[in-house]
Amino acid sequence: MEGIPEQPAQEPKWLWPMVVAIGAAVMVILALFAQANPSAITPISKPEPRGGIVIWVGAVFTLLLYSILYRENPLYRFAEHVFVGLAAGYGTYQIWNTILFPEWYEPLFKSGKWLWTLALVAGGMYFMVYNRRLSWMSRMVMLMLLGFDAGIYFRVWAGDWVPQLGDSFRPLVGPTFPYVNLTNIIFMGAMLAVMVYFLFSFEQRHRGLRNTAATGRWLMMIAFGAMFGSTIMARMSLFIGRLTFLFQDWIHLIPKNPGT
Asked: 49 preceded by cis ω (within 30°)?
């Protein structure tokens, strides 16, 4: 008979309040040290254009968010909720400032284009999803929007991918010596090998087909690895930017380039 699984040990309730108190004390000490040594740490009272309080808030929340590297904790969750709240508020402002106000409010109330009232009616129909009896209204608007989006995305897809399909038909021979375009031959071979890998309509019994499909699989793995590496490099660039902010703008361990 299996035993009862062990419950993970719970942290004492005083642990994280103590961590917060210690962290706040360290920040106060750093702030006092910065006032006495502004060349070592940016003081909170630094004037504009980039005030010291802005740099300190950015540094503190950067450290709170990176605390997830230790494990899930209340400090990280607090910083995460603040970030999500700020993003939601900023997104709402941008929607009103860049879309609703210039594209709907001004034409309707300032230019007198009253047909824009229909947009308000359609937007209100979305909220009928919360009414069980009238939820069919929200589905009508959603279906219309999905139809419009499908048409737009198909046009974008055709504009992006149809030229690439046409460009895949490349000449393999050239008019001058050595009369062979090696780059196009490699391209065509890689493309055909990958296409053979996706031939699932029949069993690949022939050894040549199996080897070609295996080559296509290896080529795809190389391409996926390159894309993954590019993604990692982009994330590392963001991480380096945060470290530069901490150790150059906040704590002056990295000297700034002249003129920056």
From this structure: yes
C-alpha span between 227 and 221 (Å, rounded): 10
Report angle CA 198, 201, 204 to the nearest 5 degrees. Answer: 75
- Dist CA 67 CA 85 (whole Å): 19
Tell me the two tokens of residue 184.
């196009």
Confidence check: pLDDT of 107 > 50:
yes
Q: What pLDDT shows up at residue 48?
A: 62
| Pairwise CA distance, residues 105 & 173, whole Å | 61
Tens digits of residue pLDDT in 49-99: 667 888 899 999 999 999 998 888 899 999 999 999 999 999 999 999 998
Which residues lie closer than 8 Å to 55 by C-beta, 6 or more apart?
42, 46, 249, 250
* Distance separating alpha carbons of residues 252 and 32, to the nearest angstrom: 15
Let me know: does 184 contact 170? Beta carbons within 8 Å. Answer: yes
pLDDT value at position 1?
45
